[in-house]
Amino acid sequence: MSITTRVFKTSRIVQPIHYRGLATALPPSSEASTSTSRRFQKLDDGLTFNDFLSGDIPPDQERVVLGKTNQPRLPAFLKHPIATGASYSGIKKDLRGLGLHTVCEEAKCPNIGECWGGGKGNATATIMLMGDQCTRGCRFCSVKTSRAPPPLDIHEPEHTAEAISRWGLGYIVLTSVDRDDLLDGGAAHIASTISKIKQKAPSILVEALTPDFANKGVEAIHTVASSGLDVFAHNVETVERCTPFVRDRRAGFQQSLKVLQEAKIGARKAGREILTKSSIMLGVGEEEHEVIETLKRLRDSDVDVVTFGQYMRPTKRHMKVDRYVLPEEFARWKEVAEGMGFLYVASGPLVRSSYKAGEFFIENVLKKRRAASAQKAAEQLTSSQDSAATARL
Q: Which SUPFAM superfamilies match (predicted)?
């Protein structure tokens, strides 16, 4: 071994630099040679480039998945085209001109193009009352949250009725944010909106998807239920076990059942007949037996209509999707619920609580019930008149 020393002179210091050289090279280790040879070895996994292009997975092999693997990939049947069209633009213009909000936009509903693009008389939009800021913070919902939302717009009931009268619809859905800051949770505001809609368009059918009015008393529920609406909707959203992880902690499963029960009681006290409706999201971690138990408890609460839909994560700040449910499973849940005696069941990956197909069905049911009630009343009136005439003779 030899050592060579070079010295560089500067104005201040002299710094030696040492180079070390070996007279003989070390023999390559077996580990190093093995590592080098492996680098150039072809992976013998039975897959070729064509296998990844064809879309077919070879038997007993798994395809490589790129990207984040802790989140299920969005299936093709959940993808929707971007909303466009004259009807869509017209509804959006009406809403902006009157300062109204819709849950279709706030909750990023995938069906907005289908519902808003139906043409005059067929298009539907779910108007969200009491502003666009909610006092709750549910983990699945993209509506903005605020501890102290702005005061209610006193003109909103009139503006809502005006917008609906322009569209010439037969069925309209109203929903609202939760307003725990209000004494009655906004019940009087919702009831006023329904009353004004009925004044402008007496034949229109109104569905109201309401908050749970927690700690507001049953009077708040009865106020909405007796306001003239036709369908009282309130969503349990998920099974009881998952409720604390999916919804705001102030939203209780039992409280939601109570809302649905009290809605029927309040309507009967006012001499009205209404339908009650609820919705369940799948894909948040629920078990099959829990879904069945939830359906049983909804029927015990005299709920008439239930819908099933796939939870879809609105943003990365919201809870993750546990799994994407196949259309075949949604079809099975429809059969199960119908077998339990629900009047109507809408079940599918893109079904939401405010779902156009379900609304058309309910509209037909209610119109038939109205016709039957009118016929019965006419028969009773004719019978009483005949009895009076016979008595005079």
A: Radical SAM enzymes
Which three-class secondary structure state does DSSP give residue 80? coil
Which residues, in sequence order, are CB contacts of 180 under 8 Å at separation 6+?
135, 136, 214, 215, 250
Q: Tell me: is residue 134 an annotated ligand-binding position.
A: yes
Q: Are 125 and 109 in contact (CB under 8 A)?
A: no
Burial of 165: CB neighbours in 10 Å, binned 0-12, 13-18, 19+: middle
The model's pLDDT over 289-318, given as tens digits with 9 standing for 90+, comes to: 999 999 999 999 999 999 999 998 888 888
Rounded to 10 deg, the angle between the 218-225 and 253-269 helix axes is 50
pLDDT, position 360:
62
Q: How many residues are recorded in the chain?
A: 393
DSSP 3-state of 276 = strand
Give 124's contacts (C-beta < 8 A, 6+ positions apart): 115, 116, 118, 169, 171, 172, 173, 354, 356, 359
Helix (H, G, I), strand (E, B) or coil at 134: strand
**Token representation of residue 69:** 């693997």
256 is in an annotated binding site: no
Does residue 49 or residue 332 have the better pLDDT? 332
70: number of Cβ within 10 Å: 5
- Say whether 242 counts as a known binding-site residue: no
The answer to whether 45 and 62 have CB atoms below 8 angstroms apart is: no
**Reported pTM:** 0.70
Q: List the one residue out of 353, 267, 344 whose CA is nearest residue 310.
A: 353
CA distance 355 to 211: 18
CATH for 81-375 (3.40.630.10, 1.20.58.760, 2.40.70.10, 3.20.20.70): 3.20.20.70
Q: Beta strands of 47-139 (E only): which ranges?
A: 101-102, 126-129, 133-134
Across the chain, mean pLDDT equals 78
